[in-house]
Amino acid sequence: MNDVGAHLGGARRAVFLPFARADHAEYAALMAERMEHIDVTMVSAHAAPVPAVAVEESDAILVGGGNTFRLLRALRQYALLDVIRARVAAGVPYFGASAGSNVACPTIRTTNDMPIVETRTFDALNLVPFQINPHYVDPPPPELRAGETRVERLREFLEENDVTVIGLREPSWVVVKDDRMTLHGAGGAVLFQRGREPESLSSGSDVSALLAAPARFDRAG
Amino acid sequence: MNDVGAHLGGARRAVFLPFARADHAEYAALMAERMEHIDVTMVSAHAAPVPAVAVEESDAILVGGGNTFRLLRALRQYALLDVIRARVAAGVPYFGASAGSNVACPTIRTTNDMPIVETRTFDALNLVPFQINPHYVDPPPPELRAGETRVERLREFLEENDVTVIGLREPSWVVVKDDRMTLHGAGGAVLFQRGREPESLSSGSDVSALLAAPARFDRAG
Fold first, then answer.
1. Which tens digits make up the pLDDT trace of B121-152?
2. Which residues of A touch B122 (CB under 8 A)?
3. What is the pTM of this model?
4. CATH number, domain with residue B154
């Protein structure tokens, strides 16, 4: 979490969004514990009278993992999408783990999660113009496969959408700072683009080009 | 495929729905090859002037696998949901593989697939009152995990929905005939219900009780 501390910079009041999990209070307590060594006051949006106001009054936004559909539904129900976008546009740091990284993308179309609740649309925060596939795993040996591999699932995504996807192996993450984006963590990543072979990326790679990648989503519904 | 032949009974003209895959013609050719030993004429809905009419004129319905969201979107775009329901209610046999089994359920909320395209709603054919999780896999050893296990994903589903789920390991399938349902195949299955421990089921099990199971889906969107 030292990298998280660095990313949050001099933030004084961080808001945490625990909505990807069912038990918000438990998740908020866990996150508060993990954040203890960082000198920042953490408020959990589930306990705020109006979650959107809590986001508005914070200078850092932390979005936890769990189920991406449940998270996106909550962001919409609590009218958080626009206020998060506005805060991030104003320079407030955003930290997203797992489902929290999925919703930072234009859509949640590259989540691994089960669609356990309705979300009306898969459109999400659009803080970056590409898609993240978190917990990326390379194809297992054929005898261990059941159903499609992750590569096959992402190929299906690219059949329908002409959008760059970065598959983040564990542990790895990207840091966006102004016009630059860098890949961090020992896991490395794999880049997926329509019509190209998947490309391996190692920790430390400059992936700033993705911030200018064109994205053409299938829009039929 | 001998069990498929038995399930189709004396059908003379089967309609195949290839919409879960991107290449309909290729998939239809593959399916025709697999069906060669069964004495039935197969028409692929993608090549029919009006897919709904092709379904209407058939006495067996075969739905192939691929991406469940792409399949459900096509069923809605081609106005196939009501006509399939009507045919099945009239006694026409339905065979669904993978995504084709997901759409037979009340919703596609227990698919493993990526939400690569919009579907408007996850509501599906509702031919049975429970949910199927195809390609079910038991949790791998912790050192091989990345992201949530299937059990954890199904637990998240049950947090939001009070609906029975049958996780079908490979190879396994269920056959519904009148008021009876039986589990087939060497893989066996696992039954998931809210507030209960997962229950293992072996091939040959009578699972007719699931046909009367109450289903309470979360309806917020």
1. 999 999 999 999 999 999 988 888 888 999 99
2. 115, 118
3. 0.97
4. 3.40.50.880
